[in-house]
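Q: What would this chain look like folded?
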Amino acid sequence: MDFSQNLSMEEAFALAEAEAKLNAALQAASQRFNEAKIPDRYNEDWRFGQPAKHAVALAEILKTNVPARGSISVKCADSEVVMPVSAEDDELKETVNLMPTIGSDALLGLHIRRFGEGVCLMLEENTEIKQPIIITYETDGLYTPYTFIMAAPGAKARIEEHHKCADGATMFCVRNIHVMEGAQIAVELHEHGSIDSRCMNITDIHNLGGAVQHFTSHAGHAWAREETIAEVYAASPGTSIELYSANRISGNSVLDQHTHQIHHIGGAKSNLLYKNVVDENGTAIFAGNIRVEAGAHCTDAYQTNRNLLLSEKSTVHSLPGLEILADKVRCSHGSASSPVDEEALFYLTSRGVSRANAQELISTGFLEDAYNKFRKSFDENYTSGLPD
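A: My prediction, written as structure tokens:
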């Protein structure tokens, strides 16, 4: 390590100790990946995700020498906020290397080996970005981008991320979101797929005392897996994480969503609402877990998964869970899956609406509920008048 001549002895020792801890963490992470296996049917976090088909196929293409092929576009009123990610950026690679996964360590390790391009957003202290920041990744082949968002204390912004896959394409994106005390961040992820396209997203949210709203939607992919790990490390007034998702699954498509809401410290809130409309032979999988660590008293956390089935051949697996290791908490979960309400269909068809259109209207309203709640929370938190 090179030390500045202006450093005191105490500062030099502190820096050396910090680097030693980082090196130890990186070594442990490297060992973690070396010991990890490609998910199979014995991996509990892939129980219903058909790993022998999807995880293996993703791993095989990541192991090849096929070059990444894709494009990035960013729309932001403040160009100083946006920094491109470079494949030679070792610090960002180390950040990814330390990320947790939900049963996908080996796949994340393969992503790191193919570490390519992406976008880094650095929101400075008390910065307020009034226009949405829009990031778009597109590919017609194999693409492994990375998104890093750092919101300093008091920063406010809304970020939209769009992933677009052509027919037969594969996109595997890793996303890291760090939110400091008093920051208010709303992030949307919209996955747009085509026939035989595949996508995977691993998102890690570190909340150090801010307010985070996170929304995802998937449509069109043959297979999609989403892992979202939202962790609260520090709490101040208003500290919260809200997770929303609204998805349309049809044909033979599979959507496999896994979430962890982890409260390391008490006094914060987290809420989750995931909704799916499943048609034809589509499959929706949701496995969510709320974990309240020892000592994280006065935590308030909730989790809801709702599914609307439009076909008798549709399949839903819903697995909510709780791990409570503290006292004075309010934590609960709910799950429900059902066909379209026949009374609602009768009401619409009796007024001249065809049955197919009636199902579409009900389905649209069912999914819009999640997005509307996301935007309502956004509007209530962002009192500075950010535009729609």
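The first helix runs from residue 9 to 35.
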